[in-house]
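I am still getting used to backbone structure tokens and would like to learn alongside you. To get us started, please write out a protein record for me. Once you have written the record down, we can walk along the chain together.
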Amino acid sequence: MSTTTTTTTTTKTTPTITISKPNVGVFTDPEHKLWVAESQPAVETVREGKELKEGEVTVGIRSTGICGSDIHFWHAGRIGPMVVTDSHILGHESAGEVLAVHPDVTHLKPGDRVAIEPNVICNACEPCLTGRYNGCLKMKFLSTPPVDGLLRRYVNHPAIWCHKIGAMSFEDGAMLEPLSVALAGMERAGVRLGDSVLVCGAGPIGLITLLCCAAAGAEPLVVTDIDDGRLQFAQELVPRARTYKVERGTETEDVGRAIVKLASGVQPAIAMECTGVESSVSNAIYATKFGGKVFVIGVGRPEMTLPFMRLSTQEIDLQFQYRYCNTWPRAIRLVEAGVIDLKRLVTHRFPLEEAVKAFETAGDPKTGAIKVLIQSEGFGD
């Protein structure tokens, strides 16, 4: 059996872009602090093109979206078994500019604009070998502890996971990551032209899923949330969508009936659950038709109580999703062609140096933020 050993080399390709700004990152820790501080790789090694491993490139990050999981790692310090145990860099929705390449990388060069798929896989386990690498048994997913994330000025990353975006804006490039979440859900859920679809949750993932369902021809199309402002945003984003506000304390059976009534009596064939909240999953189960599917994209509590007999007697499939795989090329095509317009979801922008304020804005429902982006305007003085 042959093995491949990844080694660090001192051979370099010197960047052609002026680089003088120090590398900084956005950190949190087990005490739920949040701060901006110096990070690796150091600007000196970036400038000289050093410390790149085989197959790697250095990317100057230009735009990064704040994900709900980033807020959760900051506020709660964990998501299920993934726990912040030390100083930890957040962020996994990023796009930027290639600054340097290892000599064995031939398909990228300094100056290329890329979106970063934030994973490193083993290429040896069954999920990897069967094309479902999101289940890699040795996955290193950037921003999931203990692997540092992309909210830095400079990052070294495998070139294979740096997707060219051409003339696409860095903002759209960063938004390809949440679009990939929605696309993975669309494929596994099997949404088809004319399907009646319910989207639970009008946060960023729910709204992008709503856009995808609309583009796929779902009708009727209903979206739910507990917030009037987000439902209004959803209505403006997809005018033909029907919006339903879930009032706290309402029985899930009643919510299910109200959703069906709103859809002119048509029960959803597929519910795309994008909150991970127990009551919302139950709402979807009570709304969905016999033989339908509740597809859960959202991340929730480690354990839930759900209406088992409703699922059983109605033969409703309950299916789940873990991240994504093989989605970036499709996501790029959809954005380039204007099939999916992500620009309208960006409500706030902050420079990297004001990342703490950006997180406070993203984590406060009163701000009305949908997608908050952190940007770096350049790398030289």
About this structure: The CA atoms of residues 114 and 165 lie 5 Å apart. The chain is about 25% helix and 25% strand. The first strand starts at residue 24 and ends at 28.
